Amino acid sequence: MIHTTHILFGVFLIFASFEGYPSSIAYIPFIYAISSSALGALFPDIDHPNGYLSRGNWRLISLSVRKTTSHRGWTHSISGAVFFSVIAGAVIWYYNADLLYAVPFFIGYISHLMSDSLNPTGVNWLWPITRKKFRINLIKTGSKQESIFQSGISFGISGIIAYDVMFNAGMLLNAIRQMI
Ligand SMILES: [Zn+2]
Question: Which of 20, 135, 165, 171 has the fewest CB atoms below 10 angstroms from its CB?
């Protein structure tokens, strides 16, 4: 999957979670949740030289990770998600921010594994328990199906926003407006 798809799906899950559990806004500012989940959604492909985060500032992390795995190895597993979310938590703790901010990062990370599972290569979800890759084989990276999937997610986000405005007094949009 390309990085736009991953970001969209991560953001969609945050919209869905906050709309489903409106009290979340009291614990994590919505805009932080979106940014943190987008970062989480991009993070697993740090194991690929052409990954979105594998260049620029994140290059050294990518090089170190790539010494330990090939593409879609342990980084694409629940263990990888926990590992990097704990590191994200440590960074957050260092900056005296609320540890809960690591939760959207974890959600974004898992969203990446979910969308990668839709393509033929599959995802090694249960590493190191098994090396088996789980896949649904619906969407090839960069294919027309991926564009359709992106449109579906965008439609889903729009649907949540419409629901939010009609039934929840525009809670999510107000939360965004207050932060920018
Ligand atoms: Zn990936």
Answer: 20
> For the purposes of burial, counting CB atoms within 10 Å of the CB of 43, is it exposed (0-12), middle (13-18) or buried (19 or more)?
buried
For residue 128, give the amino acid letter.
Answer: P
Q: Give the count of domains, the chain.
A: 1
How far is Cα of residue 11 from the mean position of the Cα atoms in its chain?
A: 7
Is residue 118 helix, strand or coil? coil
Cα 179 to ligand 1 centre (Å): 31
Amino acid letter for position 61:
I
Q: Give the range of the structural domain holding residue 137, as residue numbers without chain letter.
A: 3-179
Cα 27 to middle of ligand 1, angstroms: 29
Instruction: With 0.90 as the threshold, say if the pTM is over it.
Output: yes
CB 117 within 8 A of CB 72: no
